[in-house]
Each structure stands twice: as C-alpha cells, then as structure tokens.
What does this fold into?
Amino acid sequence: MNLDGDYLLAATRQEVWDKLNDTEVLKECIPGCEMLDEISANSYLATIRAKVGPVNAKFKSEINLRDVNEPESYVLSVKSKGGAAGMGEGLARVKLSEQENSTKLDYSVEFKVQGKLAQIGSRLIMNVIKKLSNEFFSRFVGYFPAMPDSAEASE
Amino acid sequence: MANDTDLTDYIGHSVPRANTLALLNGRGQFVDDISLPGMLHVCFVRSPYSHARILEIDKQDALQSPGVVAVVTGKELLAYCEPWRAELTHLPPMQTALQYAMPPERVCYQGEPVVAVVAESRALAEDAAELVEIDWEELANVASIEEAMQSEGPRVHPEMDTNLAWSMELEQGELDKQFSAADVIVEQEFYVDRQTGVTLEPRGIIANYNSADGQLLLHHSTQVPHIQRAVYSKQLGIKESKLRIICPDLGGGFGLKLHIYSDEISTAALSVMLNRPLKFIADRLESFLSDIHARGHIVKAKMALTEAGNITALQLEDVAGGGAYLIHPRTSTIEPLLVGVCTPLAYDIEHYKANVSLVYQNKVPTAQYRGVGMPVASLVMEGMMDAAARKMQIDKAEIRKVNLRADDAYPCKSVTGETLEGLSQHESLDRLLEMCAYPQLREEQQKLREQGIYRGIGLVTVVEGTSPSPALYAAGGAPISSRDACTLRLESDGSIACITSLTEQGQGAYAIINQIVADTIGVKMDEVDILMGDTKATPFGGGTWASRGTSIAGEAALLSANAMKEKILDAVSQLADAPAEQLYIKNGKVIEIETEKVVLTLEELGRITHYRTMEFPQGFDPELVVTNHYSQRDHMMLYANCAMCLTLDVDINTGQVKLDQIWVVEDCGKVINPMLVDEQIRGGVVQGIGSALFEECIYDEDAQLRNGTLADYLVPMAGEMPDIKIAHVETPTLVTELGAKGCGEAGIISICAAIMNGINDALEPLGDVSLTSQPFTPEKILKAIGKI
It folds into this structure.
C-alpha cells in the first residue's frame, strides 16, 4: 500500500531538516508516541500506541534512517511489532526542496501489515495510516510560522 | 393429514419440527451459554505471519497480568497432546506433515495458535495475550496455487521436496482416439476461489478434566461427537469410555465442525494440564483465520463431441489449494477426489481422464464444506455443457437431453466406476422445463434483449453423492463412522424415549427421526422424545455429514421402531392372550385387527412393564428397549439427482447480477418431510449464491488474509434471495427399507453452475464472453465485457 503527499513549510531547508531530526519534535508529532529514544546514530526505538478498528495495540518500533543526504533527503524505515495485533513495516522517503521563502517537503510511504491488522482489511488500514500521517504533519507544521497564504498542503 | 385424530401418519408429510420452539423462544442452549463452576477462559496468541520460525517466547509480562492463571506454549503442551499426521491409506499416497496442538517451532499459516493464555475471563485473557512477546524469523511463504506448483521456490514443509500433498489419476476408455475423431472440441479453464463457512454460531468447546476420576467432559459445538471423541481420545491418551462429548444446540455446521482444530484440542489438553474447566469460543475474527476454508481450485477441462452434440470424451486437470496441512481426520484430499469422481456422473460419458491434485500453501487448511468438491464438479461439467451448446448453437436444454442416460438405464456404472442405482434425470428435467415454462422463458429473453435488458437463463442437471459407505473414509484407516444407530425405550407412562447417534445443527434431524419413529410405531409425535449429541448416552454413530442423516440414521430409527413395535405387540399378546399378529398399534393403543377393540394402551403397558410385572405370565419379562444400527455398504454413495433452472439479469453498466427466479426439481428418493427437504434445498441454494456471487478469501502475496471480517467478506442477505420453487420426483433407493437418499447438498451443488451459466447466457449478445472464475463479481463481469 502506498501513500504520498507534500507540505510547504515557512522555514529554510536547514531549519526543517533540523526539526525532522530532533527526537523531541518527532516524539511530539508522532500520534500515540509514548517513547522515542535514539539508540545510535540514525537508529531509534519507539513505543507507539495505535488503534485500528477493533485492534488497539502498543507497537514496539525500530526506526532506521538511511541514505541520509543532509539537508535534502533521507529514507526512514520502520519495523513495528504489535504483539497479538500483528506487525507493520514501512518505508518513508522524505525529500526537502527549497522554494521561494519556504521549503517543500515531499514524502512517499510504502507499508505493509501482517496478522490481525492485515485481516481487518486494507480499507481500514489505509484510512488509519492517512489519518496518522495527517496528524503527524499537522503537528509538525505547527513548529513553523504559518504560510502567508496558508496553502500548506496540496495532497 | 386427514382430520382423524387417531392418525399418526407422519412420513411423507410436512410436519412442523418440535425442537425449533425452544430456539424461537430464546431458550436454545449453545456451548457459550454453558458455564461450569470454577471455569476459566482460554485465548490464543496467533501467528501474525503466514510462515515463520518461533525464536523466543517471553511470557513474563503476560503472567503478571491480572486474572491470569497460566500462559502455555506449544512446547509445554506437547506432553499433554500427541502430534498427529492426517492420512487416508486407501487412496494414492499422501505427503503428510506432523501437526501439533500448537506448533513448538514453526508456524505455517497466519492465525495458527502458538501460545494459550488462561485467565478468569476472556477479556483478561485477551489483555494478557497482548503482552506475550514473540521473536519471529519470517520465512519465505507459498501463497497461490501457482506458486505452490513451482518446482523451485519455497516449501510449506521444508522436509518435503515439493508442495504436492496428493494426486490421483482416473482414466477409462480411449481418450486420444476420441479427441482425434471429435467433430467439436471445447476447452475451458475454471478458477474457483477460496471461501469459508461462516456459521452463525462460531466454534467452541468447554473442556472439564477431573483428575480424581480421570474423566474428561467436553461440551463441544461439533457435528460428529463420536468421531471427535475417537481422535481426542487418541491424541490426549484418555480412553473413549472416560471421554464424554455433549453437543448442545448447534448454530450451523456445514462441514466446518467436523474437523480437529488446534485451538479446540489445545483447550482440552490444557484442561488436563491444569485440572480445571476451560472455555474457548472462537470470535468472528478468529473464525475467519482458523475455521477451515473450502474450494480453491484451478481446473482445466477439454471435451469432445459429435456433430449431434453427444459427448464422446472428457478430460480434466484439477489442482486444489489445500492450505498448510491435511485436515484431520478426513484429510483435505476428498475435495479434489470428488471433483475427479463426480464431474462426469450426470451424463453418459464413456471416455474420461482426470488428474486431480492437492498442493500445500501457507494458508489455513481447506477441507470438507457443504458439497465437498461436487459444486466444483458441476461448475466444470455444466460450464462445459453450455460452452459446447454456445459453440454448436444447440439449445441448452437439448444438449443435456442428448447426453443424459435414459431413466431406465439403471442400475449402471459411471465412467468413474460409481454404481448409479436409479436416477430420474429425464423425468426431472422434463418436470423442470414444464414448471419454468422454458420455451416462454426463451421468448421473454428475446423480447428483453430487444429492450437492452441482459436476461440470462441458467440450466443445470446434476448428480449429488450422498450417504457414503465406509469405503469413502474408514477404509483408509480414519476413525470415521458411516454407521448410525437408534435406541428406543418404552417409559412407564407409555411414551417413547428415542436416543439417536444423529446430531442436529438446525437441519431438522430431530424432526425426521421423530416422524419416522412415531409413524412406524403408531404413536403421536409428542409421545416420542429425542435425545441426541451425548457420547455417554447415545449409541455409537457417525453424526451429521455428507447428507446421510435421514438415509442412514433414519433407516436405523426405522429398524428400531419396527423392532419396538414387534416387542410391544409381543408383550401385549402375553397379557391379552391374543396372538401378536392379530394386533396393531393406532395412536398409542394396541387394537385387535378383527374386532377393532382396544386391547391395551401403551400407557398401561408401560405401567405393567415397569411396576406390575406380576401381570405377565411366569417366565416372561418384557424387554421394551431396542437398539438397531444401520450402515450403508451397498454403494460408495447413494446418488440423488437435481435439475435447476434460473433467470437473472446482468446490468452491463455496473456488472451487478440480479437473480430473478429459481426452479428446482429434486429426486432424493423417498421424501420423509417435504418442507424440510425444501428447506435443505433453499438453504443450499442461498449458501451457493454466496459462493457464486460474493464469497472469496482474499489473500495478499504474503499469504495474509485481507478480508477477514463480516464487513469485508460478503455473504448473501435476504435482499439477494429470489423466489425458489421446488418440486420432487421420488425414486427410492432399494438398499434401505426407508428408501431415502440425501438432499442437503443438492442446492449448493447446482446453484453455482446455474448462476455462471445464467450470466454467460445473458451476455451472449455481446459476443464470445465466457466467465469461468468464481465468484462472479461485478468487477470480473465488467472486465469480461471490456467495460473496464
């Protein structure tokens, strides 16, 4: 399953990059994030609580950054284990490009789920992932001044 | 029935069933309604992967969770339940894998249970199950039938060289010669997706082991208590005499509740381990993952015909997707076996070859589900008939008439060696064509076509295998009884206790036995009370499967009722000093034939028999208890026949199919209760509407089920049910006194093919369109006609 979109942020590329790499900021932005620790360079452990239809679970997630090309792009891979709820795996490509007075953030996500999460159907999962990404970005956008024309997203 | 209040003439009449009132009043008792003192609840941690190795299980957090009594892994349960290998030895060799109650090392399908959590409530057990930490190593999986067949690539069971579980070749006649001499050759490939059973009441078990006396009592939602007891006894190491299975009310079986399930047998083993009563009820999400699935076939078929439309040869190749294991104790091979055996049964075909096989996949096992292979056999055969009719421009009723055996051709052997004892296919088809006014249907179709309405007429003539002999399963070593029995006992008030090995799933078994016993003895139906589903109380028997209840358990009931009648008359003749042959029973009264005088009532006989035995002559002690067994051993199956026609409309813009009317003519031999036969037919038809139009288990490339909820997996609803008109032809079987054959699967066997044929018939004006992939969804229809 795939999901992509972009956001315009009223900040320089370096400023956006720094926030994207700030564990405190990420912890605040990831919905349901109860813990986020950097365990080594570009490697994190997180605990995230999420509800997908009837499945309510705590996901232990390993997050790794690769192909890091500061301040332009990285690939973020996530492996989440939710016990009886099943597991999820995702790959997010994030790209920052400089615009006039702003930075454009493009993202594309590929993910797959297994176990109970898969069983309850892509219909639910897709909406949940969309909702979670919208929540993430709406919080993330809050770290920057509002865009003059408030056109923050064109997904 | 006439108004004569003394009449007890029930056989052949639509008598309402007595045991449904409790269900209507909300007083049914299902396994989940039962609660035992000290009972705990079991919940299972199931594999999220379709194929993975279990590296480590950390149950510490789960054990600390409130209300938790035990957290048990597959390794720990090994000491309480022997693993098994499903196999039937009378068929070509099977490649079979060892199965555990819960696998100690490796899971083979998504949803396979790996850890059991036992707690004071189901909710607490579920909470704790979420805390069980498992380290997995994901393994390469086999999802589709095509992948399973590849010579290279992943194996479901690494110890095997291939994923082929079983294969068989059936061949008769000179195929090559017939194909090279054929006027016309038709070829089609059929795809039948997986579906599942969706019983209203999910699977469930309460296991209560008592170490003080070594008895294990199971309250179990099963169709086959004695068969389950034999397998549980062997795997758990508890003597059959110490293992009692009680089946309370059952909310649907359909073959789904015939098999050994990991979660259920684990619950029994855990009860022995913990010496406590335990309950496990599958919830709906678990049911989708762990109930057997059914079907899953790719069939290639090729047929040769003469210019006149006579079939000269048929060849088919069926590969069925079996899932991760052969189901125990029946194995999953009977589904493809019956495709091979039953496909050519309906027609006079002399040259035939079938290669049928079953492959392993990392999916839940497929197994016996209503119709077992026969809905696929008829889909193929009837699909080929219509394809030939289309190609040769022959009417679809005509091509069937040309190829059906004459009604006086019986008994005869089919090309696959089956004895067909007596079928009425021409008579049934003629009745059907008259009932549906076939020529007018075709005229109407023509008119509707001119108005741009895509009306289709689907016609099929099928043969249904029922009432198997021991040759089908037990000959291969499986503990599957094809025998049934009935015990009758005269109570002290003259009423009759009837104890049968048959079981009730809602199909009306209770009523049928009630009718046969009351009618045969000559008492009112409410004088006969029936006990079923208790291995400690009932005689041994096979229970409910393969449309055998009426024909086999009904025959046992008839034999017992006849014997009871004789015993009653003999006892009365001792009291009344009249010869037994001069007496008969009418509405609970023993009457002298000549004088029409009441000699004694059964009520008085009961009192004398049980309390005042001194009234009998010295030396005579009445034994008013009888048990008779019956097992059908004359033929592998008793074959019934069914002809069906339907009309439907296809909306070529949306791909929606709207069923209009369905007509059925069924010959299941002697009809005991026409209303119940009609209910069986209608139930099968509606279930088959699900197969044909809606139901499919959608898996992704990781063999993960994507639609395992009732929101995503569609089943037929009231709105999809058209009017179903049913008529009967009665050709009694000669192997029993009762004369009944089975009727439980005719509906589902006929309807899928009838709907497919109806859709293709409707789309004929659009050119060479042939849908052969079940279910026939709007998407597939729109693709076939090039709309998407």
Summary: The CA atoms of residues 272 and 632 of chain B lie 37 Å apart. The radius of gyration of chain B is 28 Å. Residues 34-139+200-252+256-290 of chain B form a domain with the Aldehyde Oxidoreductase; domain 3 fold (CATH 3.90.1170.50). Chain B has three domains: 20-28+483-631, 34-139+200-252+256-290, 293-471+634-784.
